[in-house]
Amino acid sequence: MNGRALIVGGGIAGLAAARGLLDRGWEVEVRERHPGPPDIGGALGMWPPALEALDRLGLGARVRATGSVPTAARLLASDGRSLARLDARAPSARLVARSALLEILVGALPEGTVRWNTPVTAEEVASGTGTAGFAVVVGADGLNGAVRRGAFPGAPSPRELGTVAYRGAVPGHTGVFTETWGRGRVFGATPMDGHATNWYAAVRADLAPDPRADPLPLLRRLYGGWHAGVVRVLDALPGTPVDRRTLYDLPALPSYVRGRHVLIGDSAHAMAPNLGRGACESLVDAAALAAALGEAPAVAAGLARYDRVRRRPAGRLVRASRAMSGLATATRLTGLRDGALRTAGALLG
Question: Which segments constitute the FAD-binding domain (predicted)?
């Protein structure tokens, strides 16, 4: 079937869903409150499920052409000792700059599909003002989005993970993915493109309590004594933008669907970044929603199919990501943790 769909949110999930629904013959309007795609920078790991979803949207080849494949992957201790080699998994992931992915998604839509600078409020969603005439209203506007707040009364609020993330990019290419674990903090560096290295840090919130603090001295204090690979990134930070944000995830909902309203991406299942699956699951949601609505005989049946296919797998990833966040930023028994990782890494080869 087909009809008219309103997508609230012009990020990865919303743009991908628009492409999928247009391919299925739907009339689509995307409303985004920002003047352009909400690009917070950095690189995204595209795991096989995300690449398969992009293939279904007809965009897989373009994304593969712009991404980088790590030549190796390492989990390290703060002194540089190896905790685990993840080389067997490295070729299955492709690192893509968020800006490049957003450019591909926007370019895949007809001119005028996205209405930039057009916010939608929770009150408008709840009352139906401004959404009349649409068979489906898709919430793709984040964990505090208007559709979640307006159409899902009683939905649980975002919950803090107890960590703060910093991220950015520095000049110079790396072919190796590394993630380094210490006491209460993590530092990662990944390929991004042929000219830059993507980096990220996650620290326990009590180690970075002031959101107004200059991030460079803080990062130097927290990571300056770590191994040379981390220090090399720190030395390149001056003059580059650094994004800081408190991290949250979302408790499970009994359904991603209520009436004609449906949630995808972070609006449905915002998760800790530690498994690198947030953007991936947004793309999988988009492809699954387009297929369900395109193949079902009625909207209600299509939305029910989407919910059945996506809610439980995404919920498992939310729980697993939260557990990994706690493990990576643990402050107690870190010696036992690191020893167990080295043993597991040796057994897995």
Answer: 5-320
Strands 261-263 and 136-139: parallel
Q: What is the pTM of this model?
A: 0.95
Report yes or no on 75 lying in a domain.
no
What tokens appear for 4 in the block? Answer: 């008219």
Among residues 132, 129, 143, 126, the alpha carbon closest in space to that of 247 is found at 143
Do residue 138 and residue 17 come from a single domain?
yes
Two tokens, residue 179: 């993630």
Q: Is residue 92 part of a domain?
A: no
Q: Are residues 201 and 336 in the same domain?
A: yes
Same domain, 312 and 272: yes
CA atoms lying within 13 Å on the CB side of residue 55 = 7
Residue type for 273, please?
A: P
Name the residue among 265, 294, 287 with its Cα closest to residue 57. 287
Cα 337 versus chain centre, distance = 26
Domain with 31, as residue range(s), is 4-68+97-159+249-327
What are the average pLDDT values for consecutive 10-residue runs of the chain, which has 349 residues?
A: 94 98 98 89 91 98 91 93 77 86 97 97 94 96 97 96 96 92 96 89 96 96 97 97 96 97 98 95 98 97 98 97 95 88 69
